[in-house]
Putative YphP/YqiW family bacilliredoxin (Paenibacillus methanolicus), 144 residues
Amino acid sequence: MSMSFERYMLDMVQPMRDDLTRLGIEELRTPEDVEAKLPDAKGTALVVVNSVCGCAAGQCRPGVAQALEHDITPDHLYTVFAGQDKEATAKAREYFAPYPPSSPSIALLKDGELVHFIERHQIENRSAADIAADLTSAFDRFCR
């Protein structure tokens, strides 16, 4: 029995994708998807750069889930998957300047402009609750 590496990776990362899509976060899988959503997203947009790493599983995705339980949340919810949807991730990262590529990471944009960014180094040594608190503070500030 033989399985392609690509099929194996798709199967392996699907649960990691599902962690976010089950929250109502829309996947942007291609550069065209990114360009169709981010430039014209009126109001606020959360963009989660998902990853297969342990800090994405243990802190980032759970922190995002907790933050989305807050009374105030962004108007739009998106995710790209670093290492899987490479071109879409690269296109999304164009909106995160001046920050260098980082995965996982979390961006909050308002009318297409970056207003808050959480880099990997701000995720990997913090708890999901700390990340949720950081996000809800940003939601309170920018999503009203």
